[in-house]
Amino acid sequence: MFAASAIASRGKRGPAFARLSTLGLAGLTTTVLLGGCTDGEPDAEVPPPVSSDPVIDMEIDDIAPGTLVPGSTLVIGGRNFVPDFAGPTTLTLEGEVDGVRASLALPARFVDYERLEVTWSGDGMGGRREGTFRGQAALEAESDLDARWHRSIPAPLTLRFAPHLTPRVDGLEGNVAFVNDRITVRGDDFLLGRDEGVTVALVEGCFRPSDGTVCTPVGPTTIAAPAVEATDRTTVTFPFSPAIAGIAPGTFEGSVAVRNQHPDGTTLGPDPQPLVATIAPPVIAGLSTPSASLGQYVDIDGRGFVGPRDGDPLAVTTVVLTGTFTPDGGGSPFDTDLTLVSEFVGGNRVRYVLNEEDELGQAIDLRTITGRYAGTATPTVTDGAATVVGTSIDVSLEIAPVRQVVWLRYRPTYTESLRRFGLRAADRAIRQRVREVVERDYGGVNVVLREARPEDYALYSEVELSGPDPNGIGLLGYDNTPGKDVGNLRLYDRLGGVNALTQSDGFPGYGGVFIESLFVFSEDPGALSVAAGRGHPLFDRIFDPFRPDRDGTPATREEVDAAPPPLTSGAGCPTVSADRPGQLACAVWTLGNLIGGTLSHEIAHSLGLADPHGEAFHNLTDKQGALMDRGAERPFVERAELDGAAPAVFCTQNYAYLQGILPTGLPDPRPDRVSCF
After folding, report:
1. pTM
2. How far is residue 257's CA from residue 275's CA, in Å, rounded to a whole number?
3. Rounded-to-10 torsion of CA 128, 129, 131, 136
4. Are 225 and 200 in contact (CB under 8 A)?
5. Separation CA 481–CA 492 (nearest Å)
6. What SS3 state is found at 614?
7. What are phi and psi of 554, to 5 degrees?
8. Which among 359, 398, 446, 515 could disulfide-bond with 338, CB atoms 3.0 to 4.6 Å apart, if both were Cys?
9. In 3D, which of 411, 415, 421, 466 has the Cα closest to residue 584?
């Protein structure tokens, strides 16, 4: 039995085409059915959903935590979950509570395609507030997008539930030698935060400074002790905070009492545990980021660092760099003496953002100058009126060329709109082709793509890829960033969501890439587009075998898993109707090219193209195969790279501009570019 345990275009004045396909919003409902015999009434049952075409595609891998209290969040891990905007998802529990039959249906919140969350109110299991459920869990969802029921295979589940939990402490772990060193508490039944309450550590004792003999009483001090893992009740951790005894070197002798604080005011916990700690000045172990560019974090590792706590801005760690900066290319070295005000991550890490506003950014142009700093780094921690200086160590840091990090943020509406093409199962393969297209288009330019939120950069741009155009006018893509960023002075543009600045000028407010608008290239788009005159027969020959609205059969995961290697050209597309694997390969190739080319175009707008030294947003003249031409001048076969059409590229002056603002030192991979004029 599995127990529940941790388990398109910027062209604001250009023509718009296609229409917005609206998504229905379905409210969540809850049905609670209580088991057992009551007044002779028969057992209530959860009625099965009525559907003539159910789909068993949702999968449950794990459900945790295994113990619940009122306000707990039950986390369901798995695959192929249905977004809330497509329809409600319900978690159904069928089994027994301490030998008495019980059934329960709870609304589940979509977090992403591999995670759902359910709030446990504490009621509903046959009217009981405490007990153990043993039975099965299943998911059911009705999607408005495909008008089908989606279900999971029932999974065995054991859940314990109670009104309160008393933590069990098996022992403390951790060698406390510096301020903010973490202490790990092993045991069970700790609280997990959010609406169920918190686990805290009450620390008290006495502190003897290293230069004194009197041990002065301190505490009790309450320190939050969150779970190490979000659904695991067996391990919590807390720092030896400056709030306990300050930041001065010395020795602490005392105890720790672990307590569960429930929202109703109930506080429970076992006897205190002894704690002894000797505190030393802060130390730097080194820079874990050996090379950094503008907007990137430089992580500084060590121990004894401090930062703001409980709204107190007076606790801070600074790092003084004293040494020499040597520019690349034969420039003259010069001495530096810089004070870096760091961002507090934890007692063993602070981070600094390479930026243009502080002493280093004023000393050199981080956009054009690269080189190497070598010298010493000295940490200083300050908390209120107290300051402690640590020991200096030798460090070095390479200043790298400026780069534009781009987060490709695929929204759930994007994934669901793939169902319109019949290609939901090919999502990963399509994303891979999109990435290949964009990386090819920006070859030799310092643009880096990420499909997860960047953790190593503070400054990065974001492009949302969605399904329908929220502006309601059928744009393929739209750069909704304010103004024209010539020189890419902003590294943090967001193409997505709504931008009030662009909305206020009377133009569309929502930005990003909108894949459902691609149906404008269909000669028979049905309800997916109302535009006329842009359809191409190749579009329908490629996608009709999969489009459900054209009596096509959507691709299956098994077909995708068994597919041959991806295409490297569209020379054989479309293929014969009997060649299902070939049809799938052509569809992935075509859709990946259509999305990738649009994405490259919109990213270029945010970087200042086209016509970076003028007012135009597109090339002033139509050039065959030029990526920054107006939308109407880029036909379907060019975008899809079909029928012998070569990939669209940045024309000569546009590409030279990109290499100028985001240099790599690499040669142009496409020396045959044509002039933009």
Report:
1. 0.87
2. 10
3. 70
4. yes
5. 10
6. coil
7. -55, 145
8. 359
9. 421
